[in-house]
Amino acid sequence: MIDPLLLVLVAATFLMAGTVKGVIGMGMPTVSLALLTATVGLQSAMALLLAPTIITNIWQALVGGHLRQIVRQLWPFLLASVVTVWLGVSVLARVDVRWLSALLGVLIIFYALSGLFRLGVGTLVSHGRHAGVVNGALTGLLTGMTGSSVFPGVAYLQALGLPRDMLIQAMGVLFVVTTMALGLSMGEQRLLSVELAGLSLAAVIPGILGMQLGQRLRRRLSEATFRRVFLTGLLIMGGYLLLGALIG
Q: Where are its TM segments located (predicted)?
């Protein structure tokens, strides 16, 4: 029997995460990971984000007219990010999850600070002949260990100078392929229970409702203001995760 409080928590989390995605076009995995890791733990949080992340990003990955170009241009990056997810999940299955929660906190803090203060992270990840493979491999490894594909994946895509519509579609492709690989590898490592899989599927509904709400809010709110509030909230949550892991 699923705890009703857990159902409410999951629904509220993905409603909020979907709203953020609806306003700024991304952020659902990051927000859901930050909130759920603090309450149900990292492994359960990673399992719960699978279905909402995949389903809400499939449309983003397919629509835009640039899919063929994205695959042709970015296939080394995407392939490397998928392959190394398995390595990351094998670490997740064997390492004290407290330290991986701390790592997630650090990644969220870094992501929030780079967005708030425009630190120019793209210049750090976009150089070199093999930048795509290196960044893809690191993205997949961190996805497997923490559930987050944001760094350095999104920073690398942003640094490529892609047109806005192509960038949004490329992020959708990245999130779909890495999250699908995450789900398969977690299942292989027996980190994905039937109960968590069912809850993840149920979370799709509040996630989509949140996206619709966010899209309506986008017409009324300043995206820049919302982004600052969003990043500040992430900074606080990242700090909370890191502190909790260190003193827990």
A: 44-62, 74-93, 99-121, 133-154, 166-184, 191-209, 229-247
